[in-house]
Write a structure and sequence with these properties.
This protein is mainly alpha-helical. It folds into 2 domains: 49 residues; 93 residues, no CATH class. 62% of the residues lie in helices and 0% in strands. The protein has 7 helices and no strands. Helix 3 crosses helix 6 and helix 6 packs across helix 7. The chain is globular.
Length: 160
């Protein structure tokens, strides 16, 4: 009988210890999450709300030389409007280099301009890149806009 009580008491102690350890771990996790959220809220959230929509992604203000730009991927490697966008990148590379890309790949991939999206396969997976390049080509060829005017149009259209 005494052995049973000792066994039951031992199991109860182990259970209490396990509950206390789990509770302590959960409290530590909750505290860490709360601290991370407070830190993010205090440092990022106001910044994001006040400037994210207003920040223009990376682009070259001054036209780079065509020879300073890397090659784009081969348009024939793609189909449909993606192929057309890669063709646009080859047709008006200096213009695209002066345009921001509103998928914000400058932050995620270190792209320097809309043109950078076509130096790799990024644009083939990104509707924003494709549509911006096709819009730029249309504005330059049909409306005879300068790169600065095209940039202003794209900023006005995409920065809302």
């Amino acid at each position: 009988m005494k052995k049973n009580w000792l066994l039951i008491a031992g199991i109860a102690l182990l259970a209490v210890a396990a509950v206390l350890m789990l509770n302590s771990a959960n409290n530590s996790s909750v505290t860490a999450i709360k601290n991370a959220n407070q830190s993010t809220t205090q440092t990022s959230a106001p910044h994001e709300h006040s400037t994210a929509a207003k920040t223009v992604p990376a682009h070259f203000e001054v036209a780079p030389s065509r020879s300073s730009l890397g090659p784009t991927l081969e348009p024939s490697s793609f189909t449909g409007i993606t192929r057309d966008a890669y063709r646009a990148a080859r047709e008006i590379p200096v213009t695209l280099a002066q345009l921001p890309c509103y998928c914000h790949c400058d932050q995620g991939f270190g792209h320097k301009s809309l043109y950078s999206c076509f130096e790799d396969d990024h644009a083939s997976h990104c509707d924003v890149c494709v549509r911006e390049a096709l819009l730029a080509l249309k504005l330059e060829k049909e409306q005879r806009m300068t790169p600065a005017q095209i940039r202003d149009t794209i900023v006005a259209q995409y920065s809302h």
